[in-house]
Amino acid sequence: MQAQEAPPVQQFAHRVFLNPAFTGLLSDYSLTAGHRSQWTGAQNGFSTQWLSGEYRFKESKTAVGLTVLSDREPAGGFARLQAGAVYAYHTKLRENLDFSAGLQAAFASQKPSFSGLVFEDQLGSDGSVQQPTAETLDRERSMYATVATGFLLFTDQFWLGASAQHLNNPTTGRGAEATLPPVFQVQTGYRFYVKNYYARNSLKELSFTPTLSYLQQRSFKRLDGNLYTIITPITLGIGYSYLPGGSQLPVSSAVSGLLGLAYKGFKVGYGYRTMLSGQRNALGPTHEISVGFAMADYEKIFKRLGSDKNYNRIACPEF
User: Fold this and answer.
1) Is 306's pLDDT higher than 70?
2) How far apart are CA 194 and CA 217, in angstroms?
3) Do 125 and 115 contact (CB within 8 A), yes or no?
4) Of 257, 316, 263, 319, whose CA–CA distance to 286 is shortest?
5) Coil/strand/helix, residue 195
6) Which residue in 14, 21, 60, 251 has the most C-beta neighbors within 10 A?
7) What is the pLDDT of residues 17-42, one digit of tens each?
8) d(C-alpha 276, C-alpha 9), whole Å
9) Each residue's pLDDT tens digit, 248-274
């Protein structure tokens, strides 16, 4: 694995994949599905699908979740399928400071494909492909387990967290480099409320939320900054991604935008990302769509009296 894993444009729609400590912090229960078409300018590109479900136990400080992730090269190339279970524990540290820790264990299967490759021994004198290759190719499917963990500190407007995926450095094949290196991430953000009130068991608001996230996988690094504007029921977002490159990689950057709509628990979002002009590795834009349903008891969130003080909701966006 020599390539960095690309985070979704709508990272908080798929927040359980970002950090398992997010599980159960936005709703009592939820179900979210998403699809991404990436590198659309390069031979059908690459597609990713997410599916996650969360459930928060009302009489305890715990939550559980399920995740499914699928990566596929549509032309018949690389394919990966991963399914996992998530557990999170939430507790109050101070009057307006909460803590959440999460753990995910997942099982995955992946298989390479060489159907689109042409090797030198297949080429005739006129450049045509004349015969099967004599190259020895490993076409076996590999199966492995992977572990992720993370934590969050948050108030009613601020959050700071860190997470790590592939902590066990799983082996994905026979080669010396056939492993998934750990992915380390840090996330933070702050929600500025211009107007915020509760009416008819729903939240109404006008707010601005800047967020930052940093990702590192081996020598690959990435910094993402986003600004979300929420005017109930609409969420608008703009973002900038910076990849500093390295000794063998050029510096690159991208811009992104998203539009989300949430109404009576249902939500749908669209995200778009494109490399900035002049980049040699610009392979076409990325398109994302997410749909989901979430249910939260806003009466408990706003009143928070007695035992209800255990019910805390993080301030991160939903898309």
Assistant:
1) no
2) 37
3) no
4) 257
5) strand
6) 21
7) 999 999 999 999 999 999 998 876 66
8) 15
9) 666 788 999 999 999 988 999 999 998
Q: Is 120 in a helix, a strand, or coil?
A: helix
Find out whether 219 and 204 touch, Cβ atoms under 8 Å: no
Dist. CA 16–CA 38, nearest whole Å = 21
Runs of H (alpha helix) within the chain: 15-18, 298-303
Contacts 24+ apart (CB under 8 A), 204-207: 204/232, 205/230, 205/231, 205/232, 206/230, 206/231, 206/232
What is the CA 223 to chain-centroid distance, rounded? 14
Residue type, 26: L
Which residue, chain included where needed, has tokens 């229960």?
29
Contact 62, 91 (CB under 8 A): no
Q: Mean pLDDT across the stretch 201-222?
A: 89
Token pair, residue 80, equals 């990966």
Handedness of CA 32, 20, 70, 2 (dihedral sign): positive
Q: What is the DSSP letter of 301?
A: H
Please tell me the pTM assigned to this model.
0.85
- The dihedral formed by the CA atoms of 143, 1, 103 and 241, expressed in degrees to the nearest 10: -140
